[in-house]
Amino acid sequence: MRKNARMILLVMVALAAYALIAKHFRIFPFYQLKAVKLYLLPTHGADYDQRLKAFTVCRSCDYTIVMVGDSLTAHGDWASLFPSLKIANRGISGDDTDGTVRRMDGIFNTGARQAFIMLGINDFYEEKEVDEVLKNYREIIAELLRKNIKIVIQSTLYVSREDARLRPKITALNAQLQALADSDERIDFIDLNRVLSRNGHIKPEFTVDGLHLNQAGYTAWACYLRKKGYLAMPAKRALPAYCSGDI
Asked: CA angle at residue 92 from 86 to 97, to 5 degrees?
C-alpha cells in the first residue's frame, strides 16, 4: 500500500513538474490544453462586456478616425500620440475577428471616415486557421466599405520566439491581407512588422511580454504611420530620436 502511495506521489510530482515546463517552454500539451480551455470556457470576460457596452453609448460621435483591434489597439494612447486628430479607440482586450464581426455597430457610431484595423493574433492563439480568419476579415471589410469608410489594414504583428509556432500563420495572413488591399483601391495595407519586428519575431525593445507593446513600441507604431503619410503627429522636436530617422 505504501509503495503504491509513493508511486502515485512520484507520478503526481512528475506531472506537475512537466506541466510547469510545458507552460514555460510552450511544448506539448500546452496549446492542446489551451484550445480545450477556450472551447469549454467563454473567451470574453466582464471587462470585454463592459467595454463593448461603453461603445454602444456613443450615439452621435464625431470622430474622423477609428482604431479597431484587440489589446494591442486598446492599450494605445492614440489621443496623446495624435493630439490634433479625433481618434476613437475601438480596441478590446481578448478580441478576435469573430468578436469584431459582431460589434460593428460600435465602430460605425463613431462617425469615423477612416478605419485602421489590426486583428488576428488572438484567433491564432485560439487555433483558428488562416482561411477562417481571412473570411472574418473580409466580412469586416465589406461592412466598412458599405459605409464608405476608408480602410487601412495594419499587419498582424509577430510575437516572441517562445510562440514561434504562430509565425507561419501570421505570415500567411499578412500575405493574404496584402493581396486583398492590392485588389481594391479603397483598401491600404501597411506592414508594421517592418519596424516592430525582426526576422519574424517582435523586437524585444518594443514589447513587455513577447506579445503586447510597451510605450516605445506604440511610439514607433505612431511614427511609422506618420512617415507613411497616414496620420499627422506633433512637431519633430517632441518625438524620440528614432522617429526622425529612417524606419
From this structure: 110
27 and 127 both lie in a single domain = no
What number of H helices and E strands is found in the chain? 12, 7
Provide the b/e sequence for 59-76 (b: ≥16 CB within 10 Å).
eeeebebbbbbbbbbbbb
Cell 508511486 locates to 7
Number of domains in the chain: 2
Residue 44 is placed in which grid cell? 470574453
The pLDDT tens digits for 185-195 are 999 999 999 99
Cell of 38: 477556450
**Which contacts of 32-36 are long-range, i.e. CB under 8 A and separated by 24 or more positions?**
34/125, 34/127, 35/126, 35/127
Tell me how far apart the alpha carbons of residues 116 and 9 are, in angstroms, rounded to a whole number. 54
Are 227 and 132 found together in one domain? yes
Q: pLDDT tens across 60-113, in order?
A: 578 999 999 999 999 999 999 998 899 999 999 999 999 999 999 999 999 999
Q: Give the closest residue to 114 by CA, choosing from 137, 76, 145, 83.
A: 145
What is the CB neighbour count within 10 angstroms for residue 200?
A: 15
Same domain, 172 and 239: yes
**Residue 108: domain span:** 60-243
Taking only the tens place, the pLDDT of each residue in 121-160 is: 999 999 999 999 999 999 999 999 999 999 999 999 999 9
Cβ–Cβ under 8 Å, residues 108 and 55: no
The predicted model scores a pTM of 0.79
pLDDT tens, position by position, 213-230: 999 999 999 999 998 888
